[in-house]
Amino acid sequence: MTAPDDVRGAMLAAVPNLRAFAVSLCGDIDRANDLVQETLLRAWSHLESFEPGTNMSAWLFTILRNHFRTEYRKRRREVEDVDGGYAERLTTPEAQTGHIEFGELRQALLQLPPDQREALILIGASGFSYEEAAQICDCAVGTIKSRVNRARSKLAEILTIERVEELEQASEAGGDIPTSRVA
Amino acid sequence: MPQAESREAASLDTQPGQEESQEKKHVDREKALPPQERGRLSQDIQRRIGLQLRAMYTDVVNEGVPDRFAELIRRLDKHDKPGKQ
Fold first, then answer.
1. For residue B85, is it within any domain?
2. Considering CB atoms only, which of A20, A36, A129 is closest to B6?
3. Contact between chains at A131 and B2 (C-beta distance less than 8 A)
4. pLDDT digits (tens, 9 = 90+) for A9-26
5. Which residue of chain A is at minimal alpha-carbon distance from B54?
6. Which has the closest alpha carbon to A115: A141, A137, A87, A145?
7. Number of folded domains in chain B?
8. Is B62 within 8 Å of A16 when comparing Cβ atoms?
């Protein structure tokens, strides 16, 4: 049995990384905070399914990831209903996060399929091993590897094309560097 | 090289001071990639994307624990015992 204080401490310690993961996944700080809150509440009420001695952080990431995927599917259905309103919102993450300096990358991340996005973040930013990421995403290690590779290629493609378009726009506009662009 | 790859990524407790050495390791790893992977896309672009991804992530990590979550976790603790044990 896990002592309440240990659990509380482990949850508290995991919050900064859970938030970073959530923001990277959804590109929206408010929604990310809601995801983290829901994750903590779910974890607490399902604590009996946590195996003491295993990685609490990975367990919390799994809960967050699953919750995000469920929400994503729900929202996708809503998008179809409301004429792409949510998808449109997704293309302006810099307006929602307040982290303007990473706006271009956030926007590119949101263009990746969610399975590639989560794999790339878990491996490339959260610091999980391929084995841990495979466990969190409930898939094979090889699947994680190929998703990460595809995500990296796709991101490079998106960001390279954007850079070329920016330069072209800049030269057309007489040298002004545009600060934002509609995709 | 799954081990090298995963351990090279920013750790869960990344502090700002660690970033420089991670950057170096990242560059070393790029050099170690097989030619077919290297050829596919510009090394430089991949490296910059990797660094930016970690920087973006670390930016949020460095915000620490917002009050609402510290409060939430404190309140959870007051519910007699965790889960349904």
1. no
2. A129
3. yes
4. 999 999 999 999 999 999
5. A125
6. A137
7. 1
8. yes
How far CA A151 is from CA of A122, A147, B55, in Å, comes to 12, 6, 17
Q: Say which of A11, A46, A125 has its CB closest to residue B73.
A: A11
ipTM: 0.77
Does the pTM surpass 0.95? The reply is no
User: Tell me, what's the pLDDT at B10?
Assistant: 40
Domains of chain A plus CATH, in order, are 4-172 (1.20.140.160)
Interchain proximity A20–B61, CB inside 8 Å: yes
Q: Let me know: does A99 contact A118? Beta carbons within 8 Å.
A: no
Report the residue of chain A nearest B43, measured CA to CA.
A156
Name every residue whose Cβ is closer than 8 Å to that of residue A21 and which is 6 or more positions away in sequence.
Answer: A61, A64, A65, A121, A122, A125, A126, B57
Task: Give the tens place of pLDDT for each residue, B41-55.
Answer: 567 888 889 999 999
B46 φ/ψ angles, rounded to the nearest 5 degrees: -60, -40
Domain residue limits at B71: 2-78
Q: What sign results for the dihedral spanned by CA atoms A90, A91, A97, A99?
A: positive
Residue B59 in tokens: 């930016």
Query: Residue A181 carries which side chain, given as an amino acid letter?
Result: R
> Cα separation of A58 and A40, whole Å?
13
Residue B84 lies in a domain: no
Identify which of A66, A60, A72 has the alpha carbon closest to the alpha carbon of residue A26.
A72
Most confident stretch, A25-29, A49-53, A59-63, B9-13: A59-63
Q: Does A129 touch chain B (CB under 8 A)?
A: yes
